Amino acid sequence: MSESVYHQIGGREAVEAVVNDFYDRVLSDDRLEVYFEGMDMQELRAHQVQFISAVAGGPVDYSGANMREAHDHLGVTEEHFAVVADYLERALRENGVGDDNVDAIMSEVAALKDPIIGA
């Protein structure tokens, strides 16, 4: 049995480090601040940890709203989706996640583009 991406990257502790780095980047970007006004960031970070853990094959099932429902009211643009995806990829790489695992996680994220932007 092969080890999951989740375990290869260091499990929950590693995912939490990536998520914290990711949100530090996102929340520092003036172009994205409108999407996070009034949001419970502690809850959002917890959902993101759960989401990344799930797509990386961790012992977690993502229980948040489906992506279309969760983002429909935000009017996320294709440009802003790309910026956020880039921040996630950078956070993964800069927290020591290897290329193959970054590619695996980012392919899961890419599959969510249409539901998130409402296409």
UniProtKB/TrEMBL annotation:
Pfam families from the UniProt entry: Bac_globin
GO molecular function, one term: metal ion binding
Keyword Transport listed: yes
InterPro entries: Globin-like_sf, Globin/Proto, Hemoglobin_trunc, Hemoglobin_trunc_I
Keywords from the UniProt entry: Heme, Iron, Metal-binding, Transport
Family: Belongs to the truncated hemoglobin family. Group I subfamily.
Name of the protein in its database record: Hemoglobin
